[in-house]
Amino acid sequence: EDQVTQSPEALRLQEGESSSLNCSYTVSGLRGLFWYRQDPGKGPEFLFTLYSAGEEKEKERLKATLTKKESFLHITAPKPEDSATYLCAVQAELTGNQFYFGTGTSLTVIP
Amino acid sequence: KAGVTQTPRYLIKTRGQQVTLSCSPISGHRSVSWYQQTPGQGLQFLFEYFSETQRNKGNFPGRFSGRQFSNSRSEMNVSTLELGDSALYLCASHSGQGSEETQYFGPGTRLLVL
Predict the structure, then answer these.
(1) Tens of pLDDT along A41-74?
(2) How far is CA B42 from CA A78, B37, B58, in A?
(3) Measured between CB atoms, does A32 come within 8 Å of chain B?
């Protein structure tokens, strides 16, 4: 069964304290792994797509990496405005390219 | 380029009623997906439409239905509302195809069933 698990569920960091969020997945034929940021009361905002193991992408203080079983979202020197829920999703080739989402990691960055 | 728009943004209904939500995708995007988001379950896939045809369907009861029009705008309908249908309903507009496909989300419609 296609599945996406994110950990931790919640994370509190001091401003400037770097950390990583984890997304582990089991899927029948990975087409792509996606990271989104969601602020309260808003729709998810697209951050990155990763397609193959070893791939990395960066955007400001965020860096996403991918292995055959998991992805990490590294946050370097976070700021309070990075506080949000970060969602991971995979697109599965063998189930009609359907997208499966994890339940997210709620990140709070304390000034 | 305008983003994905969803109307209405907020809705209050009572049990047994029906509701229709609307989504206008990004211009040029032909595929739209709908999701239900609740605190405990996260984003649950409802269905996907491409060029007016349902391409994929999630595990929701038949009370949930959708359609897409020739201009790519989409609607979803929930009949005989239940308390458990209270959620944020998100529409996603797809860019690209196959391995280059990415979803861009609208702001959602917050539905409260009393």
Answers:
(1) 899 999 999 999 999 999 999 999 999 999 999 9
(2) 25, 5, 14
(3) yes
